[in-house]
Amino acid sequence: MKIALRYFWVLAAFGxxxxxxxxxxxxxxxxxxxxxxxxxxxxxxxxxxxxxxxQRIPRAEDDPEAEPSANAGSSLGSFPLVSVWPLYFVxxxxxxGAGLVYGLILVPAGAALIGWAIVGFMRESxx
Length: 127
Hints:
The protein is mostly helical. The chain contains four helices and no strands.
């Protein structure tokens, strides 16, 4: 976890520093905010990981002399089955976004798709 955590710290520092430099040079808020948020998101993950103590968990990828078979047989966790509901959820979000841009008549249809997808997620998780 140390290597992955290091990537988060570097990405956070990059986003915050480059965003500040970009604002100092151009004075533009839009690009600066995007870069600051690029730095803020991995910073949140890194701080959360440090507070939870994940950097102390020994992992095979942290050992530079580890063999590729060091993680063989270790549990990767459980993965959900193939589901169609993320597709309907994204489609609903796209329709709502298009409705906000092109005409509010599309927003109820998109909201209905989002609601349908949420209900589908909930019903699928009970099974």
